[in-house]
Amino acid sequence: MxxxxxxxxxRRSALVAGAGLLAAPAMxxxxxLYGVPATDGAKGPVVWRDLDQAQLxxxxxxxxxxxxxxxxxGRLSSLSFDLRFQRGYPExxxxxxxxxxxMDIYRADVxxxxxxxxxxxxxxxSLNAAMSGFAAEMFMDRGAHFVALDFAPVNRLGGxxxxxxxxxxxxxAWVIKNAKDFGGDPxxxxxxxxSSGGHLAAVALTTDWSDHGLPADAVKxxxxxxxxxxxxxxxxxxxxxxxxxxxxxEDAMSPLRHxxxxxAPVVVSYGTLETPEFIRQAKEFAAALExxxxxxxxxxxxxxxxxxxxxxxxxxxxxxxxxxxKMIGL
Length: 330
Fold this sequence. Notes:
Layout: H1 4-8, H2 11-17, H3 25-28, H4 32-35, E1 46-48, E2 51-52, H5 53-59, H6 69-87, E3 91-94, E4 102-106, E5 113-119, H7 136-140, E6 145-149, H8 161-178, E7 184-194, H9 196-205, E8 222-225, H10 232-236, H11 247-252, E9 266-271, H12 276-291, E10 296-301, H13 306-311, H14 319-328
Parallel strand pairs: 5-6, 5-7, 7-8, 8-9, 9-10
Antiparallel strand pairs: 1-2, 3-4, 4-6
Helix pairs in contact: 2-6, 8-9
């Protein structure tokens, strides 16, 4: 059955989460027309690199750079419902005692199959596993299980991203330890996440899995889509209104600063119509991984907005769907 969180997701929460559908070429070529609030032309004091506060805030607010946010989120929600109607509801499992500590398991008709664990986005505040189901069918039809995690929104965790990241880690560990029970291969568990979920997935890739009773290479590969990998500029943006940033949290939750802990190949992806900061974050994370000698691939979605990149995870010919299948070996 759909979760309570699904029922509570309003039209406004989907809008705030950030998404994008293709726009007319003129709009796509001029994001500044809607990317930064109108001013008298004067630029304010620089806050981050060459961006003033208005520019930085817009660069971490997806709907500032792409139209039809509400419509694309509505489409993904409808596609996820349609999958349940056509293929049946996923198995629901829990990895902890918290009300949000659960997951949807979409089983392929194969035993000892690889498992793709997905971490949803939503500015660390909204969306859920149920809305992520649209991507499951591609994996199921190609012999892989698809697991979508739920976890508490950060505002119910006192604004602490570390607590959120720990929920994600425990969810992944549960999948690996229990994979055989739902026909999965615990030695072929892969991870993916989009937007704020891309950030959480990247944080999970820096995990010392021995703390969870697992080998260092428990996760065999990671696909981080349109995420954030250094939180310094995020802390300076409007998002600090609901995240209780500290120096310690900023450092611990910035995967770019902990490349030595990453033990799996990483695929980093972004769309060319995303905000300038999301594009920069992806490029710099991939470059840093390469400089550190880590196996990495950078995937670029030409003419893709932010939420288009998430939608492409369910398309075997889209940038993220193709990358996921390649990573898994399908």
